[in-house]
Structures
1.
Amino acid sequence: MNTVAKYSAIGAAIAVVAGLGITWFASTRVANDDIFAQCRSSVVAGGTGQIGGPFTLTDENGKTVTDKDVITEPSIIYFGYTYCPDVCPLDSARNAEAVAILEGRGYSVTPIFISVDTARDTPETLRAFTELMSPKMIGLTGTPEQIRQASQEYRTYFKVQDPGDPYTLIDHSTQSYLVFPKIGFVEYFNRDTTPEQMADKVGCFVDAWKKAGETAESGN
């Protein structure tokens, strides 16, 4: 190997090592900056900031509310509809049970049900549904535009199969979203997550959230 080639090879090796070092430092820093790193089990393409955002809807009492009005503590958001024959009641009951388990452990979490059925889910209909599920559950509806906007913010999907049929079914995604005041979305849960698993995971996130808040206060 001539001298030029030798030093070129050494330089390339140094660049690779330096690049790996920068990558390791960056990934370590991201992990260290993430107060929920030890709790996460899902990965969101582009980061958690890609999911969630502001919305203006109507609650089950007919009052216009924003996300800041309803997300006042750790909350679990689900998009569905009350006429759903199976999936929505089961998922909502699971979320309600997880909230009840958490309450028994000393955690306060609010389940939120956002209807994608603007034609049939009136505030009164939602109130009957949420009261059946949990005394803490908040039901939200709105205009087609408002619901579409909220759905887009949370990257959910829904499609009315036959808009002219009063008994139509609605295709929709079934993830539940854990959100915090000011922070927003932090984690999602699939349908196969049990109430106990959800409670354990949410408890981890709430503990980390509270610890970060205490650390921030002590630093002031």
2.
Amino acid sequence: MGHLYIDGEHLTIKDVVNVARGGFLVELSPEAVTKIKKSREYVDNLVEKEQVVYGITTGFGKFSDTYISREDTKTLQRNLIVSHACSMGNPLPEETVRGVMLLRANALAKGYSGIRLETVNTLLEMLNKGVHPIIPEKGSLGASGDLAPLANMVLVMLGEGEAIYKGERLPGKEAMDRAGIKTIELTSKEGLALINGTPVMTSIGALAVYDAMNLMKTADIISSMTLEALKGITDAFNERVHKARGQKGQMATARNVLRITEGSNLTTRQGELRVQDAYTLRCIPQIHGASRDAINYVKEIISIELNAATDNPLIFAEDNMVISGGNFHGQPIALAMDFLGIAVSELANVSERRIERLVNPQLNDLPAFLTKKGGLNSGFMITQYAAASMVSENKVLAHPASVDSIPSSANQEDHVSMGTTAARKARAILDNVEKVLAIEAFAASQAISFREDVVLGRGTRKAYEEIRKNVAPVDDDRIMYIDMDKIDKMIKAGAFVKVVEEELGELE
């Protein structure tokens, strides 16, 4: 099993995936331990001197002007957690929760939060031993960070709430006992340090952008299969065309498609069958490329946020300062997640139009709806319906969450990001896109099976063979969703990218 040391400075998207999905063990670096201890000593000194500092010796939000005595510190922190645990709905997936725990610990490792070392280590022990708090997905405004869902996470640290442990949903205390982890009692500043920040939206975002990067390559592979199935024209992918425009993603997509289809005897040159193709084939580089550039932008934003201090107030012990700011505000992630949702939804928009070109006999030279016995068989007719349904749903989901804001805490918190909603929507869109591309792969492989004396491209051959390991050509009508689900799982597992890159080397 892999091992990861965190220090609040060097966490990557791949690290998040390794911990969330690969079960990597996580430990604080020696530098992080030193920073955490120094920050905590400073907080203890403030409490001892009974200085008025937001979140340490005061209430929260609109209650920031209410002084809290040293004797009430522990009660204040417990009340903060139990009162803020207001999330509702279905639990976030366990991989997302693991990402949340990792990101919160990594932010605390920066040494700006004033939390005790043993509290951070309790969180990491839960992560390493597989105690995954039940965090309902709805309830975050994305400023002051992910307060409600993070409070649900912290409940388990206190022996409250619920958690999944070894596949079983248990009361928090029982899960901690079974794992051999001591529950804790929070003291000054700790509750706020644990729940004030952006790790929920960022965990969802990190896993989503990682999947989107793989999906982008998958879209190039599947569209290349369709290009061959429809005897598409490769001149439109000539590098001269794309250099003349200069857009990075567009140039990368064109290079990918030419590499994937290299050696095919199905693709054509302009003028051989047609002078030019429809946009959904001819403009694959322009359409996919724009999404590729957008995904890379989101990757950059998420990569920064993984190592950000996002709680409040921040402790700058070396400078003898505690500053109340707004790093918990999720606006950077909100905009990025909205952009991600829009970018990947376009991959499904164009994929569904390619599906239509594969099944509609008015647009190709193939049997209608890709069946030899049309009328008796419906063939791939309804697969296009399913794709159209999900594409339409994505158009609703792609409406940006970040343009909305509802004031909270008696107008003290009068602009919020809705970043967690944006992240959840992006994740839902991504799932739909994976399914639409699965339908395109299913239809493209069926179309290829009608072609005679076929020599597929170096990459498309590998993708086609991978499909045929799991899904046979459709000769007579059968239950289609079973095959569609198989290919959806293949896409989610990165199967097409894996086999094509084994043949061609890494795609862009």
3.
Amino acid sequence: MKLAMIGGGGFRTPLVYSALLRDHAPGRVTDVALVDVDASRLTTMARILEEQARGVADAPHVSVHTDLAEGLAGADFVFSAIRVGGLDGRARDERIGQSHGVIGQETVGFGGISFALRTLPVVMELARTVARVAPDAWVINFTNPAGIVTEAMSGVLGDRVIGICDSPIGLARRALGALGLGGRRDAELRYAGLNHLGWVTGLRVDGRDVLPDLLARPDLIESFEEGRLFGAEWIQTLGALPNEYLHYFDYRRDVLQADQYEPSTRGRYLAHQQGAFWDRAGTSESPLAAWRLCRHEREVTYMATNRESAGMGERDEADILSGGYEDVALALMRGIAHDERARLVLNVRNRGTLRELDDDAVVEVPCLVDSAGAHPIAGAELPDHGRGLVVAVKYVERQAIEAGVHGSRAAALRALARHPLIDSVNVARALLEDATSSFHDELSHLH
């Protein structure tokens, strides 16, 4: 099989390649095409993957491409992982958000909407190119904001685009670990929501839901990252385990205050850190070692202001482990290509799964994967306290899609003004003005 990775010069590419190197089963991926607009990063990334592959006799062949159609030709699967505007764009979103007293994080609130507005025209062109050059390929979307991007691309590709996020599986893994069940790969996860806006509502092991056992023990709740982030009392009050990104909603004022005291935003920190990494890796005898060090630094500082606002201190080494999205991606590909059935939490069209939303709304729920694609499993249910928030945010996502795909400035303003983290139409209008000024070329389609 051939896998084309769009944004193949991106930082997470070695994680995906490591999963491919571990797969020796018949019908595996044998060719990987890295596609990126940055030729220099492609060259360095190819060196990293070459170093990863040393000693692996059947390692997938890697090619590099700056021409999209060339890289897509003959692809069975396409990974989309691009960042329009780069990390500098993320830093600008954060700065604009802070200047108006709102959260500017890249997938939540203003930052997520701004990111979507400049990303959607690019991913829609990608979707059309896939449909033309590789019509039988399946697109696995990692591009943020993943729910919005997946739903927009589904307008061209239908159910052949599926979104992936590692937050749900990471949360479930840590919760099971707290119960001493970390090795149970047969646990049945019940999860419902949107991307970066969902809750674990059940964890079935041997036919019994063990989530109530966890919720009854404050000491166990606060033994893992999300438990310490939200606090045992609040999680017990909710009666469900929230995705880490809900911390921006539940503790908005606390996060904003912590952001104000930070000397640098997350985007600015990553831009500096990864800029230094690319300079170092380009000339290093072991670019893989440089990548591993940079990745560890990145994970150690993940959601640092949120943790600071909760008084958590440093991350535990166990929490720094990858959530496993590369393994989910591999299971998804094998499930579709070889009818190897798997149960995975994915971003797919609702198809009646969550009764609060229409069939075409992309939701994040457990799915059954087979040769026909990913099918949401009946029974996913939002907790009562989350229904209104999900409906409100889905409206915002739809308005962002209208703005990003069709260039409606009015829809962009509606998306900002109706987002739960933005509390004034005047602030929404000012945010939009600053975004269109700062990203003049990327947002020139708005009218």
